[in-house]
Amino acid sequence: MTAPVPYDPELVPGLEAFLDLVEVIPLRGDTILANRAHFATIIPSMEVQAEGRQVTWENRTIPGPAGAPDVDVTIVRPARAGSDPAPGVLSIHGGGMVLGTRFFGTGELIDLAERHGVVGVAVEYRLAPEHPGPAQAEDCYAALEWMAAHAEELGIDPERIIASGMSAGGGLSAAVALMSRDRGGPRLAGQLLGCPMLDDRNNTVSTRQYDGIGAWDRNNNDTAWTAIAGSERFRDTLSPYVAPSRAADLSGLAPAFIEVGAAETFRDEAVDYALRIWATGGQAELHVWAGGYHGFHGFSPDADVSRAANAARESWLRRVLRLGG
To answer: pLDDT of 119-177, one tens digit each?
Structure first.
C-alpha cells in the first residue's frame, strides 16, 4: 500500500465517530443486505429530520424510466414560499449505489429550504446488485425530467435546477448531467459532485493509499462496483451512465462543483474529472481539502477545514442558483 496522506488532526475524532457508526459489518458481496439493514437503523426518519424546522414536506410516487417501476420521491419546500419561482435541487443519496435511502440527503434539502427558499426533490433510486447500473442513473434522470415538467406546480424555476449528491450521489449527479446533455433533456444550471464515485476501475494512487483504512476504502469501493457493473466492470464498453469517468467526451456539460478530501479514495478520479472538463473548455470548480476524509464536513462540521469547505460550496450555490442575500 502506498503511504496515505495524513488526516487533518482536527478531523480525526469525527472520522472515528463515523467509523464506529458505519463500519459495524465490513461491506462485501455477501454482507450488502446486512449493511442495508444496519443503515436503516441509523438514518433518522423524515418526521425527525423536519421536526421544528421551517419547512413542509411530502412523499410522492412519480413515473419511472420507460419500462421500469415508478419512483418514490420526497419534496421539501420552505414553510413560507416566496412569490417568485424558487431554485430546485435534485438530491441523490450516497451509499455506494448499494446502500441507503433518499433520506440520507434530505437534511441538506431542509437546510437549503430554510436558508435560501430552495425546493428540493430527493429521489429513491433502485439499488445494485438487484438492479445493475445504469438503473440508478435512469431513476434519477426520470426524477429530473419530472421536476422540470412539473416546475410550475412545484414552484421551481426550471432555469435554476441542479443535481446534487455526495459519494455515489455525486457520481449519479455526474451521470444525470451526461444524460441531460446527450438526450437534450432538462438543462441543468449545475452539478454538485461531492467526493464523487466516478470510476469502476478502482486503480488510482488514492484508491491504493486508502486500502483497508478510511471511511470508504478500496475494498468497499471494489464491492460496490462489482455489484453495480457486474460482468461489464473493467470493460471499455461500460456505460458512462454507470461510471461517468468512462465518458469519452465531457464537453457541453452543466457547470460542475467538485469537492473531495485529499485523504480519501476518490481524490484522484475527482481531480481527473475536473481536468477533463477543463480540457474541453467546460466549467468546473475543484476543491481538494487538505487532510479531509470521505465526507469529512458532515461528521466534523466544526473543524476549520470543514467550515472552509462549507463556505466554498455555499459560494458556488449562490452564484449558480443566483441566490440573493
So the answer is: 999 999 999 999 999 999 999 999 999 999 999 999 999 999 999 999 999 999 999 99
Look up the CATH superfamily of 9-321: Alpha/Beta hydrolase fold, catalytic domain (3.40.50.1820)
d(CA 159, CA 317): 14
Torsion of CA 264, 260, 174, 239, to 10 degrees: -20
pTM over 0.85: yes
Terminal CA-to-CA distance of the chain, rounded, Å? 47
Show me where the domains of the chain are located: 9-321
- Under 8 Å between Cβ of 11 and 300: yes
With CA atoms as reference, report the closest residue to 65 among 145, 158, 121: 145
CA pair distance 194, 243, nearest whole angstrom: 15
With CA atoms as reference, report the closest residue to 220 among 296, 167, 291: 167
Look at residues 17, 1, 44 and name the one whose alpha carbon lies nearest to residue 293. Answer: 17
Cα–Cα dist 270/216, whole Å? 15
189 within 8 A of 160, measured Cβ to Cβ: yes
Give the chain's radius of gyration (CA, Å): 18
Separation of alpha carbons 188 and 191, rounded Å: 7
Cell 419561482 sits at which residue? 85
Please write the tens of the pLDDT for every residue from 285-303.
999 999 999 999 999 999 9
Contact in structure between 171 and 133 (CB atoms under 8 Å): no
